[in-house]
Design goal:
By secondary structure, the chain is mostly helical. The protein has one domain. The protein is built from 8 helices and no strands. One of its GO terms (cellular component) is plasma membrane.
Amino acid sequence: MLDAFTALARGTRLVYGAGLRRYVFAPIVVNLLVYVAMLWFVLANFGSWLDHWMAMVPGWLAWLEWLIWPLFVLSLVLAVFFTFTLVTHIIAAPFYGFLAEKVEIAATGRAPLDDRGLAKTAVDALGREMVKLAYILPRMAALFVISWIPVVNLAAPLLWALFSAWMMAITYLDYPMDNNKVSFADMRRRLKSRWWPTLSYGGGVTLITWLPLANLFLLPGAVAAGVLMWDGHYRDLPARRG
C-alpha cells in the first residue's frame, strides 16, 4: 500500500509534469506574496515585541531571563509558522481544490464526485477553511497554554509534533475529500481510522513547510500527494451514517 513519503515524492513529480504544471503557478505566487509580507512584518516588529514581553517579566524572575527569552522566541516562531500556514491556506484554498481535482483525473483516471461550478467551488472552499479554523484554533490555543505550565510543558514538544502532523493531514487531505463530497466530520473519522498513514503524511508535510522558500514549490506536491493518499487509503472506507 502507498506510504506517505512515496506519495509526497510521486505527487511532486506529478504536479511538475506535463499537463499539470500550469495549475501550480497561482498557489506558488499566493504563498510567495504571503511569505514576503509576513517576513517583513515580523522583522519590522520583532524588537518591539521582545522588549514588550520582557518588560512584563516580574523583577523577582529577572534571573530567569536567560530561559524566558528563548521560550519567547520559540513561541513566536511557532506562532508565525502556524499563522503563515493558516493564512496561505485560506487564500490558496480555491487554487488547491482545483489542483486536487486535476490531479485526481490525471492520477486515477476518474473525476471527483463534485459537480459544483468553479465559482461555487471557490466560495465553498473558503467556507471549508473557516470550518478548519474553528476546529484548529482552540486546540492550538490550548497547546500554547500547556507550553507554559511547569512540568506539564515537558510533553509540549511531542504534543506540538503530533498536533502539527494532524493539522497538516486535515488541511491537505481535505482537498480531495471535499471534492468528493466527504463532510468535515466524516473526513476526521476516516483519518482517525487510518491513523498511521494520516500522521506519517501530515508529518511529512510538516517537514516540508519548515523548508524556507523551498516549501513554496513543494506544497503543491503535497496537495497531489493528498489525492494519492485519498485514493489509496481513504476512498473505499464506508461513509459515515447518521
